Amino acid sequence: MNGQPAAGVDNHERYLLAAAAMLGALFAAVQPDDNVTPWLALAVQWQLQCLLPMALFIGARRAIAIVLPQHPANGWWVLILSGSIVVVAFTPIALWLDITMGGETPPVHWVGALLDEFGGFAPPAFASWLALNYVVKRQDSVEEAAHEPLIEQSSAANGLQALLPASARGVPVQMKAELQYLAVTTDRGSALVLYSLRDAVAELAGVQGIQPHRSHWVRLDAVAAFERRGRQGRLRLLDGTEVPVSRSRLANVKIALEQQNR
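The structure corresponding to this sequence follows.
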């Protein structure tokens, strides 16, 4: 997670799609009795008008997260940007669905019709996108808080090394936070443990390392190259792994690597 889109559909996205399907069913059920469109066609139309924009919302959010990996995919400005793009892009599709499936007469003045469609579609769709993601973010916060005592107990009683399998216990090379879990790669192997990146970094005070991104930590002598990519950057490690460098940490990473190479 942490800003990186998953390869498949994750649980949050399934929730968003299911909520969109439920909204489509609700809108179809509350249509006025004088609507002449057959109910089945109306149900299909509303499902398309709810599921298609939701799929586009999710796709736009993923695309933004790929272009700007240092920003979390569920961050508010990413959600607002993806929502704004989709409500504009989907307006002509919504008008087309109204004409082809809803039985509306094709407009004479298309610009005015598109503006009217935007006024009717964009505000509720945009508000629904933000509201549903707010529910998701709140649920994440509750789950993270529920796991926090377990993480703290593990830290106090055992430490990171004790949680690693025997085959992977060694000096950490890189670590990546994945929700309440931590993906750890050492000089002997790798493992996924229930642990916080903050606590792990605190335990490595004697190891020369740096956090190029809020979700990543790397050992400095494991870095093979550093390159700028626009306003962000990338570290390439000796094993070929690439780690993102956020814009706010570019200067610190550059200084740390220069000191390491002296």
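Strands lie at 172-178, 181-186, 190-194, 209-213, 216-219, 223-229, 232-237, 242-245.
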